[in-house]
Amino acid sequence: MRDNKKKLSLTARIVIGMFAGILVGFLLKLLFPESVLVEGYLTKGLFHVIGQIFISSLQMLVVPLVFVSLVVGTCSLSDPSKLGRLGGKSVLLYMITTAIAISFAIMAGVLIQPGAGVAMPTDATFEPSQAPSLAQVIIDLFPKNPFSAMANGNMLQIIIFALLFGIAMALVGKPGDRLKGFFDDFNEVIMKLVIILMNLAPYGVFALMAKLFSETEFDTIFSLGKYFLLVFVVLILHGVVTYSLILKGLTGLSPKVFLKKMREVQIFGFTTSSSNATIPITLETVTKRLGVSNKIGSFTVPLGATINMDGTAIMQGVATVFIAQVFVIDLTLADYAMVVLTATLASIGTAGVPGVGLIMLAMVLGQVGLPVEGIGLIIGVDRLLDMTRTSVNVTGDAMVSLIVAKSEGELDEEIFNDENADLKERDVHL
Question: In this structure, is the dihedral angle defined by the CA atoms of residues 165, 160, 144 and 272, taken in order, positive or negative?
Fold first, then answer.
């Protein structure tokens, strides 16, 4: 009788884990605000250990998965020159969505005026890191040592090396065919590891949420409530409305089906706050549940995780308007146009740089003459917004993958429209 009961789906278990973690975190914060035992054994003990093991497990799969899947996809292309077309389409789409995101954010900021009446604290400071030059960014795309790039998780260098390796395999003939069999098998093993890890996700998600919400200082969020809510609402609207309109307009595919199948990826992105750490889940969903060919997905997903910064662009748009209003500095239409252009180009030019969001914001503020120390105002509420930004970014990665796949005839629409695609294989109860 018990075996015949319907088991909860993986998505349901992850959602339950997330909300249970949020609830436990709130209760610990409320009932034991300064408990040394709770902090030592739970918050920074059990929850920290489980959460970090979960994050590390995801990151463990990123490099082998990206390298192997890209090699398999590249060497399977009948025409290696097709890569240039794929790259051009992908980068152009990512830049367009980023430009739309920051334009939307600026308009919302100008209309709502989140910084009006906010007192500027005298101790607000911020020291931005130096952004690399465009020439250095281009040079750094090519790894001196591919193994070092893999060890350091330098995604753009890994992508370049994997593409070159895959092209060489396709051109070399029989040795390449033999090696392709090995990489095909390797790819299957890595994807199985992803599925196993996904079934452990509810516990990792619970621990991450419980730790975060037991440590978050909500007084800071309330003091900047208008700014926080505006960024949050614009992020949600962009992730749901803008992406749906673009997807429907360019492919004719159902946004409802797309968003429903993206729920797990969005939750992973929200809890990890890292597009790179979410790559294994995004790629598994894009290829197995949305029907995108591995030839396309293995290229567009890692690229998007590195250069697609729609969520960050929204934060920058609202933050720029907010800081201008706090310092009572009027920006012209030309200034706003410069913000859009700078943020869009910087999303490509600073890809893969640590702390890229704040570096980009410092660049944007500098372009329109706003004080960089204004960033110190918003850092306190940035953690929760960063989680939402990542959910938006990974949704954008999948949407662009669908558009590129559809345009190249590499999309299986039967899989896309099948609500149960890949569920049996993924729902392994451990």
Answer: negative
Give the end-to-end CA distance of the chain in Å, rounded to a whole number: 20
**Tokens 């390449």 sit on residue:** 176
> How far, in Å, are 111, 144, 209 from residue 212 at the CA level?
32, 38, 5
Rounded distance between C-alpha atoms, residue 346 and residue 342, angstroms: 6
Type of residue at 406: K
pTM of the entire predicted model: 0.83
CA 176 to chain centre: 33
Per residue in 115-155, pLDDT (tens digit) is 876 665 545 555 555 666 667 777 887 899 999 989 888 88
Tell me the backbone φ, ψ of residue 292, rounded to 5 degrees: -80, 135
Tokens of 29: 């914060």
Nearest Cα residue to 302 out of 84, 410, 140, 153: 153
Beta-carbon count within 10 A of 28 CB:
21
| The total number of residues written for the chain in this structure | 430
Q: How far apart are CA 260 and CA 228, in angstroms?
A: 26
**Torsion angle defined by CA atoms of residues 389, 394, 397 and 401, in that order, rounded to the nearest 10 degrees:** -150
Which domains are present in the chain? 10-417 (1.10.3860.10)
Stretch 261-289: mean pLDDT: 90
Q: C-alpha dihedral over 387, 275, 92, 317, to 10 degrees?
A: 20
Is 23 exposed, middle or buried (CB count within 10 Å of its CB: 0-12, 13-18, 19+)? middle
Q: Which residue has the tokens 């918003």?
A: 378
CA 186, CA 180: separation in Å to the nearest integer?
10
